[in-house]
Amino acid sequence: MPAVRGEGMRGLAVFISDIRNCKSKEAEVKRINKELANIRSKFKGDKTLDGYQKKKYVCKLLFIFLLGHDIDFGHMEAVNLLSSNRYTEKQIGYLFISVLVNENSDMMRLVTENLKTDLSSRNPININLALHCIANIGSKAMAEALGGEIPKLLVSSETIDQVKQSSSLCLLRLYRTSPEAIPKGDWQNRVIHLLNDQHMGVVTAASSLIHDLALTSTDDYKLAVGLSVSRLSRIVTSSYTDLQDYTYYFVPAPWLAVKLLRLLQLFPPPDDPAVRGRLNECLETILNKAQEPPKSKKVQHSNSKNAVLFEAINLIIHHDSEPNLLVRACNQLGQFLQHRETNLRYLALESMCHLASSEFSREAVKKHLETVVNALKTERDVSVRQRAVDLLYAMCDKSNADEIVGEMLDYLETADYSIREEMVLKVAILSEKFAVDYTWYVDTILNLIRIAGDYVSEEVWYRVIQIVINREDVQGYAAKTVFEALQAPACHENMVKVGGYILGEFGNLIAGDPRSNPLVQFNLLHSKFHLCSASTRGLLLSTYIKFINLFPEIKPTIQEVLKNDNQLRNADAELQQRAVEYLKLSVISSADILATVLEEMPPFPERESSLLAKLKKKTGEAAGTNDEKEAGKEKKEKKAQPLPAAIEINNVGESSTDEVAAAPPSLSMDLLGLDTTPASQPTVTSLFETPAVPAVNNVGLFTNPPPAANGGLLDVFDPSPVASDTGALTPGAEENFKKFICKNNGVLFENDLLQIGVKGEYRTNLGRLGLFYGNKTSFQFSNFSSTVSCPAELQPLLKITAEPVGSVVEAGAQVQQMVQLECVQEFEEAPILHVKFSTSANQEEAERSGSGWGSGGTGTMQFINLKLPVMISNFFSGAAMTSDEFFTRWKQLSLPQQEAQNIFQATTSMDTEADKSKLVGFGLTLLTDVDPNPDNFVGAGIIHTQEAKIGCLLRLEPSKNAKMYRLTLRTSKQLVSKRLCELLSSQF
Amino acid sequence: MIKAILIFNNHGKPRLAKFFTHYNEDEQQQIIRETFHLVSKRDDNVCNFLEGGTLIGGADYRLVYRHYATLYFVFCVDSSESELGILDLIQVFVETLDKCFENVCELDLIFHIDKVHYILGELVMGGMVLETNMTEILTRIEEQNKIEKQEAGISAAPARAAAAVKNINLPNISTSNIHLPNLPSFK
């Protein structure tokens, strides 16, 4: 064929040559500015330009734009070119528009007019130009203006193949931008039949379109399964000569085969045994072909063959139902793992990650452990090594955790910087998840810190401390190991943190050995002190005060250190304050008080490792917005002010230190993520905020609610039980509260001593709660009391009366308490249930049971503060309505403040039935046949308050592919929409 | 879906930038720079896929690229595309360019940027693969050329005449050809 070049534009060529001959950036900019001025004057000039000239200038502008210069004129000229009746002028006009014009430009309206004209043209060439332009810009406005036209073109019998092809993709683009702008209709069914079209190009384009259409409503496109399978079968079994031009390097129609296999991955395995059989045959044929000798040595041949093969394997993994195929797939991938083509090794590692999660092939994947480890060590390409790390993580289980974690640790020493942090997280997660022996876990993490300390994030060392605290069996070992690790001449600061914390808590367990006696421990830690950052020093100061409690014999030594001007007059207000407060604490308080304040940490409640969340965030981070990072930044800025040191003594949180420190002292349990502070909670006096050295007498370390607080330190440590009720929520209260969002009955609280059950009944705006307190022990509870309080804001909104209960609960007995409720107005907060009692149980058991600050003595007082599961949604009654009624009301509630929407990641398996029952449990009536998409849920209900009835409409849209939900609530009250949305979002 | 198609030379000079998602000029240039930075530091025989840079969407997007003599061809795609398929598509694109320009080289892309856009338009549309059959693509390009010639015959005759008279030599810049068959052969 003749060359495309030749008929060039000389002016353009000269200009480009000039630019290329420019010796410097400045010269280039100068030349460009000169040209821009020239073009601008030409465009503005009186002389009318002919099409050729316009074309030439537009080409120059395109070139200038590509070099990175902003083009702010010429748009109008380009739009004028669109209405030219010369093809080449139209073409360059459209090119300019799709490369240069912003979709929000004012010019777009004019462009759209031109597009309309061209779409209705008789000339297919013009139609195609328009379709290309629409597809390349694909703006919302275009979808709205032209969305109705394209489907007609697509299914019209008069449309030629080329236009069909373009209109499929054009429609696809508009559908992606704005699905609601595309009218539904008969075309949807007819599109499916394009899979049978004679023209392979049309089928390829149509399969892309159908893929996206079926994404949201698989059921409507079920027919596509059979058609795709038969099409695929014809391709796969054809010889390479059958499809002529669509055969690419001896592989018949590889792109179409890939598209069809992708499309099939949207659907479950076909129900029809004939179709299923045929599909399996196809898959087998593809797997067989992989074993045949290549028909060409060209890389293109193997590429396209393998593109199909990998897609077939993906489909096999997706179906996850044919053990035979799965194992064959796994073997095939195993072969690729050792292939000389890097691309194939990369893809094989990636696909194997998916295989590792199937129970049929899990074992088969594990056989390749050695190869994968080898890949990690020897691959030259970091992106391949990254995949190897992913696969090791995916294939790890109890049987090979030891080896995998070992190999990953080994590799960490030389790993690329770009993947170290992620690897550290993965090692930390695996070693925790599959630890049989927790001494191994402790060793692993300490090794991790030793090898890659810089990449160990806060979460990792928080987690190791949580685990050590929760597992008594490993505490002594941890203390010993960390002590040994600290003896290394240069150890990482993170090691000092872990060491400081663990020795502060459990140093006494190894103090018997003269080699690690108290003074040795202290000196060892203090030798690192000066090399550490301020936050670590703060932590060490806390360790020192704990040492004073654990080892009274070294108190004078530590006091000397605290007294040192380096501490007492440190420029860092935080450190100064800690030193002052700790010093005073050690001087004025008795051993008993010290022992109470610095008591061993109570176990952390078991919850999902924060590391997983971190890993998810890390891997998801890149994809997402910058909002999260911004938010993080803000948070960091906030923490600048100095905070009371004492608060942190006993705390290592999952939350970052700033959050920890921000919590008022009485809420020390709150580190664990319980973020609700009841309104009755007195706020902390601002004594701490002054960085100046506080006067001795009002070191208000633990300011108490009046009247108990006289400002004096000692009051706090008053052994009377009342004083130690902090009013803080008991750990787990928030989680338990959430359990009641979709049901009225259940267990609100349980520990070794007590179980609290709840049963609720509601009618209109009235409600009745039965609370059942079960004594699980073999001894009596005395001084039992249980009261309900409302935070101040809630009081006028909800009337609540709890009948009194007897003060004694016998061993093994259950008492009942009735609570009457009346909803006056919509509300957000929950009332708080305060339960207290004393037991004669031994100290240790009481300690375990949760309310950590309980004071000593035989009659241990227990305090339990819970959120009573009363929420606005309890006053729901369902409302049935027809589709029309629903939509009318939905539209009526269209003000932005009436709607609350949340899009969130699914935390459940997205089971339709389970979702349904949750929504019903929430109190709504589910409406069927309202939403055009059968996967979506639509519901309606009325909330009754004394003052009003509030209608509520709900729509929940699951996207199983993305594992996301979109929840939309519309009610007439902003607060109600918001609250309902919050409540319900936590349930899926 | 294909999010962007970029061609730049060994020095990072952009030769073609086609974005199927809207970015403003600055972002486009930054993406080109970032992509160049990611791709150019890689050895020639490592794998042809890597995770996208942060500007283009990070790990959810893959860069699939090929390096021909002086030029990098980079496709940025999401997870719905087959990497090997895209790699072949790049090859089809280059082979098509080669046929159209007869031994294509970097200069052809520079001086005929509009043509390159049109050829690409026959392969990829709105971020999706439109046509993969090279014969079909070439036929369509051929049709375009015919129309162009017809139109040029009517209107551009005077301009061409003037050009012929002034036929000056363009500065001769030596640029090696793209060397199509330069791929490592398989086995």
From TrEMBL, chain A:
Q: Which GO terms describe its molecular function?
A: clathrin adaptor activity
Cited Pfam families: Adaptin_N (PF01602), Alpha_adaptin_C (PF02296), Alpha_adaptinC2 (PF02883)
Show the ranges annotated as biased composition (Basic and acidic residues). 626-640
| Residues reported in the UniProt entry to bind a 1,2-diacyl-sn-glycero-3-phospho-(1D-myo-inositol-3,4,5-trisphosphate) | 10-11, 42, 52, 56-60
* Biological processes per GO annotation: clathrin-dependent endocytosis; intracellular protein transport
Bilayer disposition of the protein: Peripheral membrane protein
What family does the entry list? Answer: Belongs to the adaptor complexes large subunit family.
In its UniProt entry, what is this protein called? Answer: AP-2 complex subunit alpha
Automatic annotation (TrEMBL), chain B:
State the Gene Ontology BP annotations: Golgi to vacuole transport; intracellular protein transport
Enumerate the InterPro entries for this protein: AP_complex_ssu, AP_mu_sigma_su, APS3, Clathrin_sm-chain_CS, Longin-like_dom_sf
Location of the AP complex mu/sigma subunit domain: 1-147
Would the keyword Zinc turn up in this protein's UniProt record? Answer: no
UniProt entry tagged with the keyword Lipid metabolism: no
What CDD domains does the annotation carry?
A: AP3_sigma (cd14834)
List the Gene3D superfamilies hit by this protein, alphabetically.
3.30.450.60
UniProt keywords, alphabetically = Cytoplasmic vesicle, Golgi apparatus, Membrane, Protein transport, Transport
Pfam families (UniProt xref)? Clat_adaptor_s
Name where it's found.
Cytoplasmic vesicle membrane; Golgi apparatus
Which cellular components does GO assign to this protein? Answer: AP-3 adaptor complex; cytoplasmic vesicle membrane; Golgi apparatus
Q: How does it sit in the membrane?
A: Peripheral membrane protein
Fetch the PANTHER family from UniProt. Answer: ADAPTOR COMPLEXES SMALL SUBUNIT FAMILY
Free-text function comment from the UniProt entry: Part of the AP-3 complex, an adaptor-related complex which is not clathrin-associated. The complex is associated with the Golgi region as well as more peripheral structures. It facilitates the budding of vesicles from the Golgi membrane and may be directly involved in trafficking to lysosomes. In concert with the BLOC-1 complex, AP-3 is required to target cargos into vesicles assembled at cell bodies for delivery into neurites and nerve terminals.
The entry assigns this protein to a family as follows: Belongs to the adaptor complexes small subunit family.
Name it: AP complex subunit sigma
